[in-house]
Amino acid sequence: MLIIVCYDVNTETREGRRRLRRVAKVCESTGQRVQKSVFECQVNLMQFEDLQRRLLAEIDIQQDNLRLYRLNAGAGTEVREFGVFRAIDFEGPLAL
């Protein structure tokens, strides 16, 4: 399956800059960089779960944002989202 990993790490502190480097290293070990904070990874289910575990061990979910897009041919799309950013549910009701 194809996984898209996107992240935004708060780099205002020295520790944040270290987290950014560690998250990038985890992604580089599994996939290819397609943008500065976006990677494409071709993995099986076990590798996907391992990648998610390793990334969650590196980020600070109180300050950072991590999104994992799992793209399966013919099986639909699943997005797992962690951290401070919350996407808009475009399928839900619209409130003005």
Can you describe what's shown?
The protein is an alpha+beta fold and 96 residues long. It has a single domain (2-83), classed as 2-Layer Sandwich (Alpha-Beta Plaits), CATH 3.30.70. It is built from 2 helices and 5 strands, in the order E-H-E-E-H-E-E. Strands 2-3-1-4-5 form a 5-stranded antiparallel sheet, covered by helices on one side. Strand 4 (65-72) and strand 5 (76-83) form a beta hairpin. The N and C termini lie far apart (38 Å). The mean pLDDT is 87. Its cofactor is Mg(2+). Homodimer, forms a heterotetramer with a Cas1 homodimer. InterPro entries: CRISPR_associated_Cas2, Virulence_VapD/CRISPR_Cas2.
For the largest beta-sheet, the strand count, sense and barrel status come to: 5 strands, antiparallel
Spell the H/E element sequence: EHEEHEE
CATH topology: Alpha-Beta Plaits
* CATH class assignment: Alpha Beta
Q: With helices defined by DSSP (H or I, 4 residues minimum), what is the helix count?
A: 2
Number of strands: 5
What is the CATH architecture term? 2-Layer Sandwich
User: What is the topology, as strand order, of the major beta sheet?
Assistant: 2-3-1-4-5
Q: pLDDT under 50 segments (min length 5)?
A: none
What Rg is obtained from the alpha carbons, in whole angstroms?
Answer: 14 Å
Shape field: globular
Q: What structural class do helix, strand and pairing data support?
A: alpha+beta
Oligomer: single chain
Residue share in β-strands: 25-35%
Query: How much helix is in the residues?
Result: 25-40%
- How many separate structural domains? 1
Average pLDDT across residues? 87
Termini separation comes to 38 Å
